[in-house]
Description:
The protein is α/β, with parallel strands linked by helices. Helix content is 39%, strand content 14%. It has 2 domains: 8-166, Rossmann fold (3-Layer(aba) Sandwich); 182-294, Glucose-6-phosphate isomerase like protein, domain 1 (Rossmann fold). The chain contains 11 helices and 9 strands. Strand 4 (110-114), helix 5 (121-124) and strand 5 form a beta-alpha-beta unit. Helix 7 packs parallel to helix 11. It is globular, with a radius of gyration of 19 Å.
Amino acid sequence: MTTFETCRTxxxxxxxxxxxxxxxxxxxxxxxxxxxxxxxxxVVGCGTSWFMAxxxxxxxxxxxxxxxxxxxxxxxxxxxxxxxxxxxxxSGTTTEVLDLLGRVRGTAPTSAITADPDTPVxxxxxxxxxxxxxxxxxxxxxxxxTTVLVLLRAHLEAEGAPPPGTGPVAGAVRDARRALxxxxxxxxxxxxxxxxxxxxxxxxxxxxxALKMREAAGAWTEAYPAMEYRHGPISVTGPGRVTWLxxxxxxxxxxxxxxxxxxxVSASGGTGDGLDPLADLVIAQRLAVHLALTSGQNPDTPRxxxxxxxxxxxxx
Length: 316
C-alpha cells in the first residue's frame, strides 16, 4: 500500500520551497515571454491552471499592470480584443488550450507556460516558458501550478511594486518551508467537510484547494468568495466541519463560523506571523494527500483522472 513516505505527490509537495526559489532566481530569463506592463491580457487554462490564471489576473490588475481577465480555455470570448493571450498548461497537450491557441493565431501575440518542452504547445504559442524542473509524475498538480504563480508574482515585482496586500514573493518561499511543518490537527484530518474561502486573488487559491481535496481524496469540499459565504454556503457549516480562509478575514466571519459550530482556519489571516496565502495552499495540499492515504486511495493516480485531458474527435 502507498504510504506518505513513498507517495510521489507528497515528495513533490515537499520540493516546493526549493523549486520556488529556483524560479525566483530565473525570472529575468523568462521575461520576454510574459505580459508587458500596460498590455490588456487574457490568461487561460483548464482545471488547476485556470485557478492559477484567476489568481494572477487579480494580482496583475491590483498592481496596476493592466486589465487582465482569466478564462477556462473552453470559455474564451472569441471576438474580444487582447494585446496578449497567456496560456497555462502543464502537459502542453490539453485539447482546449491547443484549440484556442490555434484559433487566435495571428490575431494577438500568444504565450504559454508549460512543464514539457516536447509537446505541441511549443509551436502552438508564439513564445513559451518551460518550467521543466517543476514538472510532476503525479496526475494531481501541486508544484507546477504553484511554481507558475511564483513566476508570475516575481515578474510583477520585477516590473514594479508587488500587488497591494501581498508581501514579496521571497517571503512566500520562506513561508512554504514553514508550511511543511504545520501540524495537521484532528479538527482537519477528521473533518466531515471543508469550505475554502478567499478574496481577490486568493479566491483562485480557495478554488484550487477545494479541487485538490476532491481530486486526491474524493472529499466533500466547496469554494466561494469570502463575502459570498454568508449568502447561503454557511448553511453547510456546523460541528465537525471546517471553514478555511486564504488571506485576511472579513469582519465578523470567524464569529459567524463559531456561531454555527464550525471550525475556522486562517493560517494566512493577516497576523504578524501568518503565512503567505500561497504557502497556506501547501498545507491544504498536504491535507488532501493525508486524507487520500488514510482512506486507502492513491493520490498519485486518482480515479477517473489522467495527466492531460485530450479530447477525441467525435465520429462523423
